[in-house]
Design brief:
Largest interface: A-B, 36 and 36 residues
Low-confidence stretches of chain A: none
Order of helices and strands of chain A: HEHEHEEHEHEE
Structural class of chain A: alpha/beta
Oligomer: homodimer
Strand content of chain A: 25-35%
Distance between the termini of chain A: 43 Å
Number of strands of chain A: 7
């Protein structure tokens, strides 16, 4: 069945090719829990996924999904801002996943914002081990998200190019504000 | 050994994940033959690779490399413009690879140009089967390639979004005109 490739498929291809059993991942924006579930399926019982969301509705959705899938022993779902992620884990991580925007099927007026997103990205990039990855999907449109999109993309340009490979991918022939996918690999030049 | 990810690695990851034994590929810009060789290694003896270059030096380099690697039975190297690719193969293809710019270790003044590149891209996209892919790396810098880069990227925006997924990837935190990687998947929405 042929179909169009979207941001989720692209991000999952990138993550799947690099995350393995036993890895430690952070889902910085749990939302409905789909990425938390996906990460749990990759890291397995020897791995760990810590998911964050500031909306109770999102945390509940994610906990329910994780429970249904039998991943309770792998994922921890935290009701707090992703900007505080370093309070909940103090080791190195293999992967961090961010979706900036609104809660799917939630209130479009409640949206991630540039200040806390950039703070959280900065912490996650610091926590990444060498060879670790960060996947960031930026959703914007209607009246929201444009400022966050611009400021986050500007911030990413400032990352040290000898440590971080920042790849910004855009669906340039799609109408109506298609999401932007960012893939970052932390590597030390040798 | 950790190291920075470059355009070639990124393009090869994309191609490797989708090209398989028996596939038919076009290397639209043979250059020193590295992509022709890479494609031959993926499609094997039951596959076919047709490579084009307008510079004799490039065609000779590519033929030599292919011969050294034992891929003579797989690759055909043609001294002609990629804009004429449809004269050399009239079936559907699985993959096309383009590198726009100058010949590596060659004369920087001899450069692909927007008109023939866009004509060749258009033919390759037409020849792709559903599910087929096109990888395009755009090199530019010094005084050359900026016009071609801009016109090619503008052209790609005009492709039908229900048929072609066009993903333009940029290394946004690198200085000095890093190459732009474009990945296209031809798919019919179902």
């Amino acid at each position: 069945m042929a179909s169009i490739i979207g941001a989720v498929t692209l991000a999952h291809e990138f993550i799947r090719s690099r995350v393995k059993e036993g890895d430690v991942c952070i889902d910085a924006t749990a939302g409905r829990g789909y990425d938390t579930e996906f990460l749990c399926s990759l890291v397995g019982k020897s791995g760990k996924v810590i998911a964050f969301d500031i909306q109770e509705e999102a945390v509940e959705s994610t906990r329910r999904l994780i429970s249904e899938k039998g991943y309770d022993g792998i994922a921890e779902v935290v009701l707090d801002s992703h900007a505080n992620m370093d309070r909940y884990y103090d080791g190195e991580i293999d992967c961090a996943v961010f979706n900036l925007g609104w809660l799917p099927r939630g209130d479009h007026n409640i949206h991630t914002n540039a200040d806390s997103s950039i703070e959280a990205l900065s912490k996650a990039l610091e926590m990444l081990k060498d060879g670790g990855i960060l996947s960031l999907s930026i959703y914007y449109g209607r009246e929201t998200g444009f400022d966050e999109r611009d400021r986050v993309l500007e911030y990413l340009k400032t990352l040290n190019p000898s440590v971080y490979t920042v790849i910004v991918s855009e669906f340039t022939n799609r109408p109506n504000c298609p999401p932007i996918c960012v893939f970052i690999v932390k590597l030390v030049e040798v």
